[in-house]
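ARCHIVE CARD
CATEGORY: sequence design from structure
SOURCE FIELD: tokenized fold
FIELD CONTENT:
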């Protein structure tokens, strides 16, 4: 369901005016809203009829309109077409249908979706600056050249690399290469990956709590009423630096505790 496909067709008024439309022409002449059949809406939106019906069952679309000439026939109007465009826009951004329905289920869905899309532009994207990467078999073999046999299978088992046909998706290239460098230095791969799991587990919880703190602070007027976008942008470098400093300090603390525990060291 490509957003561009939906947009291009909804913007093409000549196409909309030329598709099968004797009833629509009569309505246009009388000043009434143009009504579309399911097949016409399918062509305009680029969505299969079964997909449009599915959205109806999930209550993502307004109720259909009874044909003025035959009340047994369901028709669609410009509001349905626009709603399908919004659904495509949100779906392309990664939202699942329940979240889309929640956004659209308001008195002014257009404004609410617009707000969400603006916030998504500001907050979304990669905070690590390390976008996922697709590797060919040759590229992957070059990276694995200095690692023991079985390394690829272990990495696949931990979802650090995902096979996609004849290629492999690396979700975090920098972390992937760091892992391979450690393994090439004769550090057991299970030890490296277990250490990564520990970090991910605790940092995931910390990230969730930090977002909760940020939302709560905005609700209470943090930032003097400033828009959240600029605040978040200013926090991006601070977040990375603060995390490194706090983690380094906590490692120092844990090492001192270990060194003081002579019984454990023995």
């Amino acid at each position: 369901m490509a957003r561009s496909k939906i947009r291009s067709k909804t913007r093409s008024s000549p196409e909309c005016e030329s598709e099968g439309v004797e009833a629509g022409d009569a309505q246009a002449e009388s000043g009434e809203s143009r009504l579309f059949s399911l097949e016409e809406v399918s062509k305009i939106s680029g969505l299969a009829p079964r997909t449009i019906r599915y959205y109806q069952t999930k209550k993502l679309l307004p109720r259909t309109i009874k044909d003025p000439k035959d009340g047994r026939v369901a028709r669609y109007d410009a509001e349905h077409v626009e709603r399908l465009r919004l659904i495509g826009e949100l779906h392309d951004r990664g939202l699942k249908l329940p979240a889309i329905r929640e956004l659209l289920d308001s008195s002014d869905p257009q404004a609410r979706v617009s707000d969400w899309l603006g916030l998504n532009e500001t907050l979304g994207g990669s905070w690590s600056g390390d976008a996922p990467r697709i590797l060919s078999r040759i590229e992957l073999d070059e990276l694995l050249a200095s690692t023991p046999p079985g390394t690829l299978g272990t990495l696949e088992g931990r979802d650090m690399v995902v096979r996609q046909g004849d290629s492999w998706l690396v979700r975090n290239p920098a972390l992937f290469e760091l892992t391979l460098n450690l393994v090439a230095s004769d550090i057991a791969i299970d030890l490296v990956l277990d250490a990564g799991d520990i970090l991910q587990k605790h940092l995931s919880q910390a990230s969730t709590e930090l977002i909760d703190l940020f939302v709560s602070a905005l609700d209470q007027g943090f930032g003097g009423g400033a828009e959240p976008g600029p605040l978040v942008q200013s926090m991006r470098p601070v977040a990375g630096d603060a995390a490194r400093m706090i983690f380094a300090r906590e490692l120092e603390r844990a090492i001192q505790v270990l060194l003081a525990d002579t019984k454990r060291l023995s």
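CARD ANNOTATION: Residues 228-260 form the longest helix (33 residues). The CA atoms of residues 80 and 108 lie 14 Å apart.
SHELF: design records, drawer C
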